[in-house]
Amino acid sequence: MTISTGSPWHGSMQEPAGGADLDARRAVEAYMLPSAEPVRLVDPEGRHVHNDTYPLPDGGALLSAYRELVVGRRVNDQANALVRQGRMAVYPSSHGQEACQVAAALCLGAGDWLFPTYRDTVAVLARGVDPIQALTLLRGDWHSGYDPYEHNVSIQATPLATQLLHAVGVAHAAKLRGENTVVLAMCGDGATSEGDFHEALNFAAVFHLPVVFFVQNNQYAISVPLSRQSVAPSLAHKAVGYGMPGERVDGNDLAALLAVLGKAVDRARDGGGPALVEAHTYRMQSHTNADDATRYRTDDEVAQWVPRDPLQRMRTYLSELKLLDGAVEEDIAGEAERVATALRDGLNAETQVDPEDLFRHVFSEQTSQLREQAAKLREELSREEPSAHGSGA
Amino acid sequence: MTISTGSPWHGSMQEPAGGADLDARRAVEAYMLPSAEPVRLVDPEGRHVHNDTYPLPDGGALLSAYRELVVGRRVNDQANALVRQGRMAVYPSSHGQEACQVAAALCLGAGDWLFPTYRDTVAVLARGVDPIQALTLLRGDWHSGYDPYEHNVSIQATPLATQLLHAVGVAHAAKLRGENTVVLAMCGDGATSEGDFHEALNFAAVFHLPVVFFVQNNQYAISVPLSRQSVAPSLAHKAVGYGMPGERVDGNDLAALLAVLGKAVDRARDGGGPALVEAHTYRMQSHTNADDATRYRTDDEVAQWVPRDPLQRMRTYLSELKLLDGAVEEDIAGEAERVATALRDGLNAETQVDPEDLFRHVFSEQTSQLREQAAKLREELSREEPSAHGSGA
Amino acid sequence: MGTTLTFAKALNTALADEMEADPTVVVFGEDVGALGGVFRITDGLTARFGEERCFDTPLAESGIMGMAVGMAMNGLRPVVEMQFDAFAYPAFEQVVSHVAKMPNRTRGKVKLPLVIRIPYAGGIGGVEHHCDSSESYYAHTPGLTVVSPATVPDAYTMLREAIRHPDPVVFLEPKKLYWSKEDLELEALRSSAGSFGRAVVAREGTDATLITYGPSVSTALNAAAAAAEEGRSLEVVDVRSIVPFDDETVSASVRKTGRAVVIAEAPGFASVASEIVARVQERCFHSLAAPVLRVTGFDIPYPAPKLEHFYLPSVDRILDAVDELQWEDA
Amino acid sequence: MGTTLTFAKALNTALADEMEADPTVVVFGEDVGALGGVFRITDGLTARFGEERCFDTPLAESGIMGMAVGMAMNGLRPVVEMQFDAFAYPAFEQVVSHVAKMPNRTRGKVKLPLVIRIPYAGGIGGVEHHCDSSESYYAHTPGLTVVSPATVPDAYTMLREAIRHPDPVVFLEPKKLYWSKEDLELEALRSSAGSFGRAVVAREGTDATLITYGPSVSTALNAAAAAAEEGRSLEVVDVRSIVPFDDETVSASVRKTGRAVVIAEAPGFASVASEIVARVQERCFHSLAAPVLRVTGFDIPYPAPKLEHFYLPSVDRILDAVDELQWEDA
Ligand SMILES: Cc1ncc(C[n+]2csc(CCOP(=O)(O)OP(=O)(O)O)c2C)c(N)n1
Ligand SMILES: Cc1ncc(C[n+]2csc(CCOP(=O)(O)OP(=O)(O)O)c2C)c(N)n1
Ligand SMILES: [Mg+2]
Ligand SMILES: [Mg+2]
């Protein structure tokens, strides 16, 4: 096996090609350029929109995805409530973006990998990670609470775009072993401005790796609007610079997301290399509870996105298809409620933190320096009295 | 004045555009996409090639540019010789790329700025920098030998792509003051893979700054071929991701370079924003004298580029136009010889380094720490005897 | 007449006053415009001075830093905000290879009068990457001036001084102090002397010296107060300016007291605290009755919120260290 | 029977032997393939093990480091080459925020067995950015194991140990030693004991201890030899492993001799040298007849080739420091 790099047209740069190649060149460009409009299969009114390239996923698939959507929304609401009640320090909600979250999880197979960010808790849970373990981070018990290998879900990354490179490495290792693992790596619109975004897409393209880069363009990076991140016609256009296909999709259309991401994942698994998918969506709430969105956007702007809600449109579509009726709705609502209750109970339970943990995992074998420091802390804590010197600062 | 960002189509991302916009969209893409072939105005046989977009620069302009080309080649040869004679530690030659070097310098006005790399000594000299000052770096006397403000030429940058951001900053400051300065920033094909390349192009695009990014694609980054840097159809295609125009040009065609860079500079000065220009050329010699190119490329490959030499083709073209005859050739050769002699003499002269300089420029005002350290060194050096402890290590 | 300001507001006022005084000062970074920064340090600047004086950039720290270098080369005085300590790391190459070296590289032809503001250190229950004490990386890099205010008046005067400084300044803002308040006389401060290279004795004492800076100064002062109740007199030196370092004030104090504890939040290994210990023992060896001890963060990644109180230098830990200073002869 | 190898060839052999022994080892970076690296440390590896085991990447250090993190997460043991010290800075965020922290962040679920090879330090007349001593940045970062071999046998054994190590290792290769030669018994070395966390006494002595590592060990040994001619017996400790640090060996030596000089090429301020001074005076205070002194690089950017000899710790400078160790009582 050798490192297979590149794409069909690679190599043609060495020498100017003859005129016969020009059409092929333009075809290649067309292959990389995203469709002129974000792909949409179900419109905000819940009606199917025909698309030549992307067939509508079947009803059963949409129904189970819808179930996750409702659960995801409930998770966001419940997490916000827990923050208000002081059970969690902070929660970056994906309210409004749940269709992206659900599709990111559902388009992958069990052996595939997901690389989420701080905002992608709903996707993490949809992939099967235990909710309480996932919220360990935001509750402040530890920097990450689940075993990434259990569901092939990497840690929820905070430093923007850095995780895209880890995704590339995981895919590269799998490819070198001849496995057909696909990796889906998520980031926001703001993160596309970071150098690591560029390096990750380029590495994936040059090494022809099965990575789907999934940008949730929710129009804001905290307070900074998209227009301050990019003046390209779309973020998906960035694919051209790496020689990979770019696609845009309505990020509030669960059906379109499943279709577009599904195709990119299949293509990657079949050796077609990486792709960039941009979902056009909106962050309905503040960046986190610590943020104040009224400082930088109007209520009017937010209001425009309300009728495009991803849940509502799927509900309408599925109801009209008769896939969804009162009984099914109730069943789904019940499941969402169970998840919410589990979340609440889990987070209301007091957790014990162990100061010895501070020193346990820094190295596989504790260094003599850390042994000394741990001993010092242990000794400090073991003194019966709350210290001779009073209460501390 | 406000920060004017963006491009004509910016803002259209907020909402899917109607079908009427589609043609406009595709037009915008066409505007950013480079021409299918690198622009060429004079072919390797010295014949004019017609181009609808780029008229041929006039004969007088070409003749003075040719003069610089000959001088540039002579500088490269002389510098290589000085390395062999041990007068310089290292020299990254631009042999074969001199047309790019000359065009980069000539397309700018006196108030404009040039941001060169270690390989761009010929461009630096063509802009008027004193050759001996420029070679201070490679002779090892100091990290940079000329005053960047004298000719608006920044230091020759070593850490790849970092200087592109400095160029953006210089342009931004000029724009904020309402000056119409243009900045031309150079880098190699390898440097386009760095995160800073991405961030620089994006900042320039978002702030709509007058920066021309000029990539000399000489097919190699030390030993690594272009195919390991990018699988995009061309490096110029990267412009699309930033919403700026990209163009490709035959990097061994001085006429085409002057035309393409000249147009990009004019456009930038007229408020048209940044552009990316990729010159298709070849590094005829090793990366530096310390490199051994036979380890990674064949003599055959190098030989293919010999007939595309930028000097030869300009000479043929100008001779056939009768702009160049024996007398003019001789005059140009004489000038090149004078420059070479000055270089040789300058570098053969012994320079004195002053150890106090080590501490002089770290801060505007020396800190007490550095005063102490400088005093210690002074004391050490001032001891009459070559030290009580023998000769040192 | 004095006014009561928070640390955050003092910084905000310093920025505004300096932008008013010098039209070449420009402020930029992530969320510094409409939002006024996640800590509101740049609040109101865009409204008051316009978008060209205070503006948001694309989300890219190396880009911010590199652009600042170019702007400083070309006549402006950029003041950039790194949103949190750990988010300055993507800019590390620009800081180390260019910000720190450009003036020296060009023999002073190119000056870089720019300020890198970094909200730093912990104690606020922040999640990972939001609590790093990164001063040692910068202090170790020749060419950077590195300072950290520990009081509200210093927040104001030192930031103004940083902006006027002819060389690049890494300006470290202890996050946990942002909400602290003090009365101060702004008018008097406007004409106060420079503080770069000058430590201050924040509390006088005779038995031992606590040497510290930034977020740990208040903890040290609390420790000194507690010690006083136990009959031990501790002097507290606020270093303020890490580079350049005020050897004179620090050494004078230690020579007087004969004992010293260095306190800092960063992991201790190869840190600014190590440096202070090394300098003090070099300069005050014969005055020392005991080794110079350190109370620093452990050599571990900054802990999650629920564990950070185990990590941070505390009054108790400082007093324990003081107790270890071999008082048998006292 | 012994063979004579250069330091560079010993590293190359270690890579080849470890790639042979463990099929999960992969080597990548800039110019490490066909060229064999600018210092030829990876020479022949692609030819012998194939392109999938040793390959060139696009020119992007953060990319190299981030990809290595992912590969290590997924069953491989990446050994990456940063072409020169200062060209590792673009990868700083990946190193500090992920390489160093991922195992701790995941409570040891994710291990990152990867090696970051960095040709480092000066003394070779290199141009700017090619001679930085960057060990202090890494040593200050909790979670990184930081080592530097100073002899040809250590080059071989320590690199093999680094690759087998379960945690990320920053492996600092003193550039000026690449061409040094030594006889060695490869077979015996293959079974030699581990060196991480263990300093060695490179030369025994009684009057004072020189504590150093990497490029400065040979200079210290030369200084000790020169001192011996003047009748002064200096012990030389080669630290080898900066993190973890061998306090036992270092302290034992200083307790024995009562005097110490710490030597390192990096600027001294807030450096590994500061740390060693701080530790030694904490642990050996009552054995010390004089302060622990330092001979380090000045606190200035690494100088241009024609000036570097003024900057580098030299035999004379070391001996001058030894002379300052208050011998009046001797
Ligand atoms: C390297 C880095 N810089 C800055 C931050 C601080 N920060 C956290 S989230 C955020 C905005 C991210 O915007 P985007 O990528 O669009 O994702 P979103 O939050 O909208 O999902 C910023 C600036 C960070 N986490 N990492
Ligand atoms: C950040 C950084 N990484 C690595 C290097 C080492 N290096 C110097 S030149 C070079 C190759 C550059 O190739 P390219 O950009 O194509 O320019 P060329 O030398 O061909 O002109 C490399 C890897 C560097 N100077 N800076
Ligand atoms: Mg966003
Ligand atoms: Mg090149």
Automatic annotation (TrEMBL), chains A, B:
Residues 370-393 are annotated as: Disordered. Residues 70-337 form the Dehydrogenase E1 component domain. Signal peptide: none annotated. Keywords: Oxidoreductase, Pyruvate, Thiamine pyrophosphate. InterPro entries: Alpha-ketoacid_DH_E1_comp, DH_E1, PdhA/BkdA, THDP-binding. Its cofactor is thiamine diphosphate. CDD domains: TPP_E1_PDC_ADC_BCADC (cd02000). Residues 373-387 have a biased composition (Basic and acidic residues). NCBIfam families: PDH_E1_alph_x. This is Pyruvate dehydrogenase E1 component, alpha subunit. It comes from Arthrobacter mangrovi. The lineage of its organism: Bacteria, Bacillati, Actinomycetota, Actinomycetes, Micrococcales.
From TrEMBL, chains C, D:
The keyword Oxidoreductase applies. Pfam families: Transket_pyr, Transketolase_C. Residues 5-180 form the Transketolase-like pyrimidine-binding domain. Keywords: Oxidoreductase, Pyruvate, Thiamine pyrophosphate. InterPro entries: THDP-binding, Transketo_C/PFOR_II, Transketolase-like_Pyr-bd, Transketolase_C. It comes from the Bacteria. Its cofactor is thiamine diphosphate. This is Pyruvate dehydrogenase E1 component, beta subunit. It comes from Arthrobacter mangrovi.
